[in-house]
Write a structure and sequence with these properties.
By secondary structure, the protein is α/β, with parallel strands linked by helices. The protein folds into two domains: 23-295, Metallo-dependent phosphatases (Purple Acid Phosphatase, chain A, domain 2); 304-510, 5'-Nucleotidase, C-terminal domain (5'-nucleotidase,  domain 2), CATH 3.90.780. Helix content is 32%, strand content 28%. The strands form seven sheets. A six-stranded mixed β-sheet has the order 4-3-2-1-13-14, with helices on one face. The model is unreliable at 1-22 and 466-470 (pLDDT under 50).
């Protein structure tokens, strides 16, 4: 009996004694995507002659790489909104796709909120994986972090989203939600996660520059898997002991980060971007069938030619400068509302329209948001304030950059934000600060989206109300919530083809 007890004691000693030396050691592969925006079909990015991306090919790459070693598949936000394949189903198609691919976690991006709180809550319930947002309060089902055990490692994954989300989506979509400082949210949870996990991963939808600031400000993060800025980071960067990765956009690349962990710290890291597309590897048959199922529904609704473009209606640089498509859309706003001038944000335009036959699908791809027309009365000083705000996002390619009609402006690139405008003309005459002008835009900007607070302030001063998401105010000169901007563009092509537009010098930059 004594010998048996002795044997048990020896075995327990060997087991317990060996455990600490093995804890926190292992190899792990992080597979990651960001800013997918529903691009489930292969597509040709601007400047490329080859088809890239495609969810079935992305899934095929995931399958090959996941089979080679213990892995986690992560999404860094802006997954469910963007392309028609996502938008026509309010993101349900994308979540079904992610479930089929076996994603392990996702952080919400700012565009996850574009269909409203109720839809996002439903997408979270639909997901077979945790959806994270440590710095978002008030949304049921959203979790700050999740713990995963893979390859003998305990991995903590914490999610944070840009605090600018309330300005990047329609205000009604985030009513009742609170967005706190991401760094503060990470600091709050990090000590506990460091005790409980061998590896701490922050799944971030902040943007590359903000990820670098987070790594500097909060030591102790092992890896930041980033999104939001669509950065093509070919190799991982190390800053203040933290590895930072990001995988471009639209499923064109799959990010791979191979880690060796010893005693709860990253001992070695090697990463790369794997190109995705037809001819770069086999497609996943199950995912291919899923993509086709939804694409057939999209095609039945949208593959209808509505007109013709006489020229390429370029929109690629709409966040930096005047573009042909920006001019066309702003002209349509001004004509429909009868306003003195029109202004939209460059971020409204998500794709150009090439010369030739134009389908409803192409227009919906270029203008994916449910925006309706609004026009209201502003003083010349307020018009100038709005234009200054639109120019203040340079050179970071922020979506606020103005695309205009009925006015011309000259600005100085080297001047500080807020004082860049040199000259503004409306209707061929210098802008009168005390004059009153009718300015057309859409409801997103009218409610203060993209930081255009001057519009929201004007409407509030005149008695702004919201009824069922519809803006009402005595300052409004035009308000049509029943017609979306993209449908007016379809109507324009139907009645005015072949359509032409060009860059005319409406916005002129000086050094």
């Amino acid at each position: 009996m004594r010998s048996l007890r002795t044997l048990i004691a020896i075995l327990m000693f060997l087991f317990l004694g060996a455990a600490p030396s093995m804890a926190g050691e292992g190899r792990l592969r992080l597979l990651h995507v960001n800013d997918f925006h529903g691009f489930a079909e292969p597509h040709r990015p601007v400047g490329s002659l080859e088809l890239q991306g495609g969810a079935a090919y992305l899934a095929g790459a995931v399958n090959r790489l996941r089979a080679a070693r213990p892995s986690l598949l992560l999404a860094a936000g802006d997954m469910i909104q963007g392309d028609n394949w996502a938008n026509l189903f309010q993101g349900a198609s994308v979540i079904e796709l992610m479930n089929a691919m076996g994603f392990d976690a996702m952080v919400v991006g700012n565009h996850e909120f574009d269909f409203g709180r109720e839809v996002l809550a439903e997408r979270i319930r639909q997901a077979a994986f945790p959806v994270l947002g440590a710095n978002v309060q008030g949304l049921p089902g959203l979790r700050p972090y999740v713990m995963k055990r893979v390859g003998g490692l305990r991995v903590a994954i914490l999610g944070v989203v840009t605090p600018d989300t309330p300005q990047a989506t329609h205000p009604r979509n985030v009513a009742g939600l609170t967005f706190t400082d991401p760094a503060a949210a990470v600091r709050e949870h990090l000590p506990r996660l460091r005790q409980e996990a061998d590896l701490v991963v922050v799944l971030s939808h902040l943007g590359y520059a903000a990820d670098r600031k987070l790594a500097q400000a909060v030591p102790g993060i092992d890896v930041i898997v980033g999104g939001h800025s669509h950065t093509r980071l070919e190799r991982p960067e190390r800053l203040n002991g933290t590895w930072i990765v990001q995988a471009c956009e639209h499923g064109r690349f799959l990010g791979v980060l191979d880690l060796t962990v010893r005693r709860g710290r990253v001992a070695a890291a090697r990463g790369r971007l794997v190109p995705v597309g037809p001819g770069l590897g086999p497609a996943d048959g199950k995912v291919l069938s899923l993509v086709k199922k939804y694409q057939q529904k999209v095609d039945s609704l949208l593959n209808v030619v509505v007109g013709e473009a006489a020229v390429d209606l370029e929109a690629e640089h709409s966040r930096l400068q005047e573009t042909a498509l920006g001019n066309l859309v702003a002209d349509i706003l001004r004509e429909r509302t009868g306003a003195d001038a029109a202004l939209i944000n460059g971020g409204t335009l998500r794709a150009g329209i090439p010369r030739g036959p134009v389908s409803r699908k192409q227009i919906y791809t270029a203008l994916p948001f449910d925006n309706y027309l609004v026009a209201f009365r502003l003083t010349g000083a307020q018009v100038r304030q709005a234009l200054e705000h639109g120019l203040a996002g340079l050179p970071e390619r922020q979506g606020r950059f103005p695309q205009v009609a009925g006015l011309r402006l000259t600005y100085r690139v080297s001047a500080p934000p807020g004082s860049r405008i040199v000259e503004v003309e409306v209707g061929g005459r210098p802008l009168d600060p005390a004059g009153v002008y009718v300015l057309a835009t859409h409801d997103f900007l009218a409610a203060g989206g993209d930081g255009y607070t001057v519009f929201g302030e004007v409407l509030k001063e005149a008695g702004l109300k919201s009824t069922g998401g519809m803006l009402t105010s005595s300052a409004l000169a035009y308000n049509d919530p029943g017609t979306y901007l993209r449908d007016l563009v379809v109507e324009h092509f139907q009645g005015h083809s072949p359509v032409t537009a060009r860059v005319e010098g409406r916005i002129r930059a000086l050094p």
